[in-house]
Amino acid sequence: MDAAAAVAEGLTLREKVGRVFLFTLRNLPNAENLLALEPAGFIRLYSDALTASRQHKCLRDRAPYPLLIAADFEKGVAPVLAAATEFAPAMGLAATQDPTLTESVAVAIATEAAAVGVNWNLMPTLDVNTDPENPIINVRAFSDDPKIVTAHGLAFLRGLRKGGVAACAKHFPGHGPTHSDSHLTLPEVRIDKRQLITYHLAPFQAAIEEGIEAVMVGHLSCPALDPSGVPATFSSRIIEGFLRGDCGFQGVVVSDALDMGALTRSFSHEEIAVRALLAGCDLLIMPAFPYQAYQAVYAAVQDGTIPKARLESAVRRVIALACWAHDLSAQELFDSTGNMDKICCDNHQDLAEEVAQRSLTLISDNASHIPLTNDNVAVVSFSTTQDGLFEYLSPKSFGDYCARFSSRISSFYCGFLGEQRYDIENQEEYVLQLCRQADVIVVGIFARLVVAGNKKGLEERARSLLERIAALGKPVIISLFGSPYLVPHLRRYAETILCAYGGGPAQQKAAALTLFGQNMCTGSLPIRIV
């Protein structure tokens, strides 16, 4: 009997049921209460690095067993935790064409994660984003090419391990060929089995062969694998038959968050937890109502709806993962201060800036507007979504970076064009006045993905502003801080388009450096655009 099986055998039924849950860490008192259920652990939501570190240490000290502290650190520990380093999203990493750089980024992310007590990063994203209208995967995917996704996905996996945290491949069997957001509704993977295996499953198979410890199943309907159309989360044909049987995966199968609309629109919270475990998910993440989900699973095991053998196999795998992650992590990092010197350190900032510069992609510059010379330049920026706290957690400083290189800069950040401002009554007219006084106009567009936003393209206000700017007849440069899938919508407004894939400080600085000839633009689009 292996160590995990021995531990599992000594648990009571209630303790076993607890071990198949990963609860949301909303605040410390709530998490401390949930520890009474003896869960496998918690998943980290937004906070700051110091607070998170202290919360994690408190929970780890109170739990009498190795605790999983997980997080979605996709672009780095920031912006989930303020005061940490923010890197380019996956598509930006792929744009560098250098998997060794991707691995270095993953090492840095894992180092900062371990420093605040997180021992499991629910990454890498191995979706192959073949649908340009995908509203939620998009730049979170490395590419629309499975070979690129595989190369950078495996590099990310290796980097996480080198940095001391466990990994998780997501979202099996592939969220890339969908054009709806599973946070809102159930997406359908509308491709045949041959396409699925050849294109979308190749990165997952490579990760399984690499020995990845966990695979997250997406809330996706995939008729090619299960004609019933039920979510993969509830499909034993997909999990037990295909993922475990055909693909040979023997590690932990993780559900996506159980509070997402893809499930909650059609099923009760109790039914969601029971059906996911019964289908083959070993670890149930983020149930909306933890106590109800726990009691539902407990009752289902007692009445035989969930066979005890199914529960016990799940518990053994989860315990093995928790022990492995616990041993992998550098335990000396988990002190009361979280070793803040490892958070947002100079080396990581330098790496973020290197990645940002090497990922920056010149989509077009037919009129050779770059580099900017001694002209009067108006730098106008706006966001495609409401900023909320992101204006403070992720400041839009593009104009300020540009002003470092020229005294002839006039800049203005509009925010979301639909938001009412207290300082300027008619911001569109104010922007146009700045543009009329300039020789060259630079437009920064911050296109941030929003969970459950489901927005595609540009809104009417943004199109209207761009049309009025273009009608001035002056050279226009667009610096796109986000999805390159917007490029076809932008070509009519500007001859020069830069793509930075994300809107973090490093990307804004890199774009400014390139505009003023301080750096070359060497990134390459890792996707096909029309």
Largest sheet: 6 strands, mixed
CATH fold-level topology of the largest domain = TIM Barrel
CATH superfamily caption of the largest domain: Glycoside hydrolase, family 3, N-terminal domain
Strand order within the widest beta sheet:
11-16-15-14-12-13
What helical percentage do the residues reach? 25-40%
Number of domains: 2
In short:
It is built from 21 helices and 16 strands.
Description of the molecule:
This protein is α/β, with parallel strands linked by helices. The chain has two domains: 339 residues, TIM Barrel (Alpha-Beta Barrel), CATH 3.20.20.300; 156 residues, 3-Layer(aba) Sandwich (Rossmann fold). It is 40% helix and 14% strand. It has 21 helices and 16 strands. It has a six-stranded mixed sheet, sandwiched between helices. Helix 19 links the parallel strand 14 and strand 15. The radius of gyration is 24 Å and the shape is elongated.
Please give the structural blueprint.
Blueprint: H1 3-9, H2 13-18, E1 21-25, H3 28-34, E2 41-44, E3 47-48, H4 49-62, E4 68-71, E5 81-82, H5 90-95, H6 99-115, E6 120-121, H7 146-163, E7 169-172, H8 193-200, H9 202-209, E8 214-217, H10 236-246, E9 252-255, H11 261-264, H12 269-279, E10 284-285, H13 290-302, H14 308-328, H15 346-359, E11 361-365, E12 377-383, H16 390-393, H17 398-403, E13 409-416, H18 427-436, E14 440-447, H19 460-470, E15 476-482, H20 487-490, E16 496-499, H21 505-515
Parallel strand pairs: 1-2, 1-10, 2-4, 3-5, 4-6, 7-8, 8-9, 12-13, 12-14, 14-15, 15-16
Antiparallel strand pairs: 11-16
Helix pairs in contact: 1-14, 6-7, 6-15, 7-9, 12-13, 15-21
